[in-house]
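Lab meeting, item 3. Inverse folding demo.
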């Protein structure tokens, strides 16, 4: 939901010099202007892209651990080559 809300308000190519930035439409925006608005929205998106979804992340970790355990089990079951 946050990605959709933030990306919809980002300035597009038609806005020329403002392309890629955001307007500062909150109560602190008057002081910081476009630079403030862009910085806050960029930080908001950083969290979205940096951290995996909690449920998907746990699922991936469990799958990776299961694959690792399976590989170790298969390795133990293989007979050692003759010397």
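The presenter then showed the designed sequence:
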């Amino acid at each position: 939901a946050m990605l959709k809300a933030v990306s919809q308000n980002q300035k597009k190519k038609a806005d020329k010099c403002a392309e890629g930035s955001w307007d500062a439409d909150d109560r602190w925006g008057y002081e910081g202007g476009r630079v403030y608005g862009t910085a806050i929205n960029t930080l908001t998106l950083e969290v979205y892209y940096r951290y995996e979804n909690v449920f998907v992340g746990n699922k991936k970790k469990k799958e990776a651990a299961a694959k690792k355990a399976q590989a170790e089990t298969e390795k133990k079951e293989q007979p050692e080559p003759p010397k």
